Amino acid sequence: MNHGFLPISRKEMEERGWNQVDFVYVSGDAYVDHPSFGHAIITRLLEAHGFRVGIIAQPDWKDKESITEFGEPRLGFMVSAGNMDSMVNHYSVSKKRRQQDSYTPGGVMGKRPDYAAVVYGNLIRQTYKKTPIILGGIEASLRRLAHYDYWSNQLKRSILLDSGADLVSYGMGERSIIEIAEALDAGLDIKDITYIDGTVCKVKNLDSVYDAEILEPYEEMKKDKLLYAKSFYRQYCNTDPFSGKRLVEPYSDHLYVVQNPPAKPLTRQEMDDVYALPYMRTYHPSYETAGGVPAIREIKFSLISNRGCFGGCSFCALTFHQGRIIQTRSKESLIAEAKTFPEDPEFKGYIHDVGGPTANFRAPACKKQLKYGACTNKQCLFPKPCKNLIADHKEYLSILRDLRKIPGVKKVFIRSGIRFDYLLADPDDTFFKELCQYHVSGQLKVAPEHVADPVLQMMGKPENAVYERFTHKYEEINKRLGLKQYLVPYLMSSHPGSTMKEAVKLAEYLRDLGYMPEQVQDFYPTPSTISTCMYYTGVDPRTMKPVYVPKNPHEKAMQLVRGIYEQHTLLKEGDLAADFRAAKYAGGDLTLTALRGKVVLLNFWATWCGPCLRELAPEALPKIILERFAADSEFVFLPVAYTDSKESLDKFFAGDEQHNYAYLRDLTAMDPDKRVFGLYAEQGVPRSFVIDRNGRIVLGSLGAAQEELERMAAAIEKELSR
Q1: What CA–CA distance (Å, rounded) separates 79 from 220?
Q2: 128 neighbors 218 (Cβ within 8 angstroms)
Q3: What is the CATH number of the domain that holds 119?
Q4: Whether the predicted pLDDT of 643 surpasses 80
Q5: 14 in a domain, yes or no?
Q6: 317, 424: one domain
Q7: CA–CA distance, 122 with 335 (Å, rounded to integer)
Q8: DSSP string, 161-205
């Protein structure tokens, strides 16, 4: 047996003394038995209720035999595309294929199909004609009714119809999946399980469907985008478990898709019980030879403290999936889990995160939400915090203080993001002070998303003045504490409502910032968000008023970081790279001209630049570029650090948390007087240049997005092949 993991093969099933499983769980992710993975929670919960579950992780979708490993399950198949929508997992916003899949052993791309839930469902149905199939996970959840699909640029029908499945369990699924399992175990036919909250089913008539709100028919929505906008907003307003209505989407006179109301939120005790299940907290040992599953690195020593979000950002599907009502674990549950970390030999003393979708949400926004539900016609924080909002960080603060006291814990970080407008709404500054003092690793991630108020209005984000107020307070507190810490803002270009006027304002902000934030990302129209609806229909579904949508590739490029690079750089593609002499951290010096005849990747970074460190982390530039060209003697990677002194680099490389950057010691050149930066990187970091054998710049890049890394890799490969 595999040390407590659920069986992934017939052999392991038989070792348990089983001749058949009750459920086969088919996942697009590798098997990681950790509560950050949906398949782990659902399978362990089924196990706790007495069901036998086998897992088929990343089956070969080209081979029907791949889903027959356990034979036909007694009760049914459960199918999930994984922790991400498979199309988002596979493609960048420019629809280019990504090179790495963090949810696959070794980070290998291509182990799951496009539209994975649909493909897996049909693969199963080809072999098992009548066995129940239940879809779950975020891909199925966000595609549960008609939805705009960015990659095919069309309105797709409910995933239930295209997959051959019988039910969709949407949202987090703990309640609905047990009700489904118990109904099947009691002998009910899957076609009769049409009543469970948190599920979507299909029926031939509406005789048994009561209390339903009829949405616009699919065929009519295909012809009229405005009808889809109206329908989508009705869906959006019915995501609350207390006020949400049953919805019916007609496809013909004899086919209807029925969305039952969302499942009720878990109580704190139920949340504690879910996270107390016997997870192995790592990937299956069979993946060890491939190098393990990269996604485990950031979450293995992190704590999930909450679910849900009342932030209501237009571009985020979280409320559509998890809901607006915050669900939390108790302090006791979190402390108990954290006390197990020092027992793991890989634990270095750092708890990487204590949070969830928004780290500092610890309770429903107001007292009435658990009785009446969240308001359907207004948001908790937008455009201004609601007068009924309870902004209180006392409980979260108490948890963090107790975590810091655990023997073996050196530092407790908060990396899942702070909602800064909620933080400002709290009249007590104690949490803000301790956040800066104890829980920031030099940089704090926040998400203002933009700086132009018309765009922020479309995004459902607070006006820019709120973020400015937050930055000033952050600076003041850090100054009082004697700390030099930075903010890492997440920003977005080309969001609906952004004209070139707003784009220029964002570009000017980035210029003045002095470095390139980690996430200046082109808006990505993912399924079932208000922003995606705007992108597709050209109207705001909340008001039905027209919205400007930047779609032209040239304009989008100008609004993106790429455009900013073109406008704000001294040396452009085609220019001869300026020569320089610089001292190396490891000793000696170098000149750029000495590298003529080789293909050079010149990279500018700083120890204080969070996006730089993200770019240089093992799973990013080293994985995508350096490992790929390591054996080619014609390729040189030359990082240049902006630093005041060699001593500041000494301090950086000596830090326990900086072990991932040890490879930079022998490679890095220093630029204490910013002379080299003045030639190449005046407008911010991270910045990179690919230089050909003749010393000419063939590509300039700004920012740390994976898409930029992949562009660099392609340019290097092209030059090496010449």
Answers
A1: 30
A2: no
A3: 3.40.50.2300
A4: no
A5: yes
A6: yes
A7: 43
A8: HHH--SEEE-TT-HHHHHHHHHHHHTT--GGG----TTEEEEES-
Is 207 domain-assigned? no
Strands 519-522 and 486-493: parallel
* Of 255, 118, 121, 260, the residue nearest 193 (C-alpha): 260
Rg (CA), the chain: 26
Q: Are residues 560 and 659 in the same domain?
A: no
414 and 498 in one domain?
no
Judge if 19 and 142 occupy the same domain: yes
Domain end point (choices 441, 471, 496): 441
Whole-number Å distance between alpha carbons of 202 and 235: 17
Instruction: Provide the token pair at 352.
Output: 């990487």
Domain extent for 80: 10-199
CA distance 526 to 320: 12
Quickly list DSSP for 453-482.
HHHHHHHT---HHHHHHHHHHHHHHHHHHT
Output the six-digit token pair for 240: 């609350």
303 forms bridges with which residues in the sheet? 354
The partner residues of 351 in beta bridges, in order of sequence, read 412
Name the band, by pLDDT with cuts 50, 70 and 90, for residue 705. Answer: confident
Residue 256 within any structural domain of the chain: no
- Dump pLDDT digits (tens) for 150-197: 999 999 999 999 999 999 999 999 999 999 999 999 999 999 999 999
Q: b/e for 90-101, b at 16 or more Cβ within 10 A?
A: bbbbeeeebbbb
Note the pLDDT tens digit of each residue in 28-48.
Answer: 999 999 999 999 999 999 999
- pTM score, whole prediction: 0.82
Could you tell me if 17 and 135 lie in one domain? yes
Structure tokens at 133: 């199939």
Task: Say whether both 354 and 471 belong to one domain.
Answer: no
Tell me, yes or no, whether 47 and 105 share the same domain: yes
Tokens (6 digits) for 112? 């799951």
DSSP symbol at 12:
H
Domain with residue 611: its CATH number is 3.40.30.10
H or E, element range at 702: strand 697-702
> Is residue 219 a part of any domain in this protein?
no
Is the same domain home to 44 and 170?
A: yes
Domain boundary (199, 227, 252) is at: 199
β 32-33/282-283 pair status: antiparallel
Write the CB contacts of 163 (distance below 8 Å, at least 6 apart in sequence).
Answer: 79, 117, 118, 120, 121, 122, 133, 135, 140
> Which amino acid is present at 250?
P
What is the four-CA torsion angle of 590, 592, 595, 597, rounded to 10 degrees? -170
Q: Which amino acid is at 335?
A: I
Alpha helix segments (H runs only) across 1-143: 10-15, 38-48, 86-90, 116-127, 137-142
Compute the distance between CA of residue 515 and CA of residue 605 in angstroms, rounded to an integer.
9
Among the listed residues 109, 82, 80, the one whose alpha carbon sits nearest the alpha carbon of residue 96: 109
For residue 444, the SS3 value is: strand
- Helices (runs of H) and strands (runs of E) counted in the chain: 29, 31
Question: For the chain, how many structural domains are there in total?
Answer: 4
- Other beta carbons within 10 angstroms of residue 678's beta carbon come to 13
CATH, residue 559: 3.30.750.200
Indicate the residue type of 166: D
CATH number of residue 308's parent domain: 3.30.750.210
Q: DSSP state, 91?
A: B
- Cα–Cα distances (Å) from 328 to 39, 359, 425, 477, 625, in that order, read 20, 11, 20, 29, 40
| Cβ contact 235:261 at 8 Å | no
Residue recorded with tokens 């459960």: 78
pLDDT in tens, 399-409: 999 999 999 99
Cα–Cα distance, 476 to 271 (Å, whole number): 37
Tokens encoding 516:
């390139």
* Residues forming beta bridges with residue 636, ordered by sequence position: 600
Name the nearest CA neighbour of 422 among 374, 389, 377: 389
**C-alpha dihedral over 612, 613, 617, 619, to 10 degrees?**
-60
